[in-house]
Amino acid sequence: MDLDVFVSAHRAEWDRLDALLRRRRSLTGAETDELVTLYQRTATHLSLIQSSAPEPQLIGRLSRLVARARSAVTGTRHASWRDVTRFLTEDFPAAVHRSRRWWIPTALLSTAVAALLGWWIGTHPEVQSSIAAPDELRELTRPGGQYETYYSSHPAASFAAQVWTNNAQAAAMCLVLGVFLGLPVLWILFQNMLNLGIGAGLMSSVGRLDTFLGLVLPHGLLELTAVFVAAGTGLRLGWTVIDPGPRSRRTALAEEGRAAVGMAIGLALVLFVSGAIEGFVTPSDLPTWARITIGIAAELAFIAYVHVLGGRAVRAGATGDVEATERSATVPTAA
Fold first, then answer.
1. Which of 323, 331, 329, 334 is nearest to 77 (CA)?
2. Which H or E run includes 129?
3. Can you say how many angstroms the Cα of residue 200 is from the centroid of all Cα atoms in its chain?
4. 104-122 per-position pLDDT tens digit
5. Contacts of 39 (CB under 8 A, 6+ apart)
6. Contact 163, 151 (CB under 8 A)
7. What's the angle, vertex CA 178, arms to CA 176 and CA 184, rounded to 5?
8. Which pTM does this prediction carry?
9. Cβ-count burial of 12 within 10 angstroms (0-12 exposed, 13-18 middle, 19+ buried)?
């Protein structure tokens, strides 16, 4: 593209759009239609310049012009309870449902890795001795030891808040760092499975695996599912960098990135629930079967939520991305 020729050909349209925006409160019907047309053309011009002949000063001017025109055309939009309802009933479950082909295999493989690590540690004393000294291992695994008292070592409310913060950060890191080809996501996931495998292995080595599962399952089912969803979505984002499909890489990353941000908010709510279970249910005096039942019920409720509401939203065309009116204008690309 010859940028000078392009600017000369379209400068008058940009100036006309700027003039209409300056007096938009007194526009006639015909001038309003003209404003909309010029907004669409200028948005296309901006995309062409960004992809073919990036020139910072010109891109800055046109970006500001397009933003002002979008505001004039669509109006100033304020968040409302309708947006919250739409997010919880459509956008978030749709995003989770769409990425199920990534997070379900991630969950299955990760669980298998954790089980394999737990078996290896539990059946190999030399591996156990490399983890900690014998006295420390006994303190960890004995009745009333550190594995059991960990969940009741702090007040329930503060412990739940701390757990929620840590897990939300881990999930957000999986989502954000996925853009680096998914490699950091694999490391975060492995660290989580290693910690789980160590606990299971050490407790099984002294015949107390049932106690360990009774402590982990009430909150761990929902908590790990949220981590697997975040990891699967992060891996999907990493794959988008490699293979954006028929979309341009910029467009694909923008769409998947916006959905990932929404996913982070939704998963923070899910992890809030698991954190509350970990803070109030796991260390409670309820029988083990009752605590595990609460954990299974929370997990099944989330799966049903994603399958029913998410599936319905996806069939209706929802993707988890923001509404079309809030997206940046793009130029169509050939498949």
1. 323
2. helix 125-131
3. 28
4. 999 999 999 999 999 999 9
5. 17, 66, 69, 70, 72, 73
6. no
7. 100
8. 0.73
9. exposed
